[in-house]
Amino acid sequence: MAQDSSFQKKDIWRVFFILLFITLIEFVIALAIPESTMSQPIKNFFYIGLTLLKAFYIVAYFMHLKFEKTFLIYSIILPLIFIIGIIIVLLYESDFWLSIR
Amino acid sequence: MATNATVAQEEGKDIWNGGQSPFGASYGKLMMWFFLLSDAFTFSALILSYGALRFSAPSWPEPDVVFKSIPFVHTDLPLVFVGIMTFILIMSSVTMVLAVEAGHRNSKKEVVKWMIWTVIGGIAFLSCQAWEWNHLFHEGASLWNNPFAPHNVNFTQLFFLITGFHGFHVFSGVVINIICTVMAARGAFEKRGHYEMIEKIGLYWHFVDLVWVFVFTFFYLV
Prior knowledge:
The structure holds two protein chains of two kinds. By secondary structure, chain A is an all-alpha fold. Chain A is built from five helices and no strands. The longest helix of chain A is centred in the first third of the chain and has 24 residues, at 9-32. By secondary structure, chain B is mostly helical. Chain B has helices at 27-55, 63-66, 80-104, 108-138, 154-185, 188-192, 196-221.
């Protein structure tokens, strides 16, 4: 019915090349850029940003979530807020563990 | 893509008046989404424990040093093999979307063709992982021993636990993909009049790819 407006063969390949390109950027950061030009924390920041971007493309286009009903999108995305909460808690906690080791 | 198959939403009708799902998706697809949400929490728990243990460790092995071997090549090439594995999994995700797309056109031949490619991609990924694990075993890595940082065994434990759990997901995915390919080839979905089953297993397969994207970042890059 409505699929003509959403996602077609050429879009599939476009998303594939985006994912491939992002992965290649990650490799360039990991292998071609020396530690002196870009320190590890900054590299990590880029890795995580690019990973979330890849995750967006997979979920939105390959899993087709972008074209689902708004209510379905929110009921999948909003519960993931808990993960952000536990990340903050564990960052504090692991810092403490390190200090007592 | 309100498929030809699923519960159709009548245009302009208020979705909250009952008689139809506000999600606009079939029961099976909705439950697959909720299963994947719970599975996402499971994987988050594993990866977050990994993060916490790694942050609290005074030293941690360098991924460039640990993951540098490729089959049949005797020089050290850091991260190239895992790059190949990542490419294989993304590629098999693409063939899965192509199978779903062919399903919307009710083209049985194309669905079977792309599903077979997806199964091949999954098996290729599992073979690569088997080789990598085997190689690490030979270097002395195990749940009890970490040759890369002898005082802290957490690295190998978490590596085998998390890639193992992900690999088990890939394995289940391959099995279900094979079942669906056989069903499609025998015309089971054609008889049903729709290929929604391919869409549902497709969601699962993309989720496996999604988890790998995170595993790749946190084990091999960071």
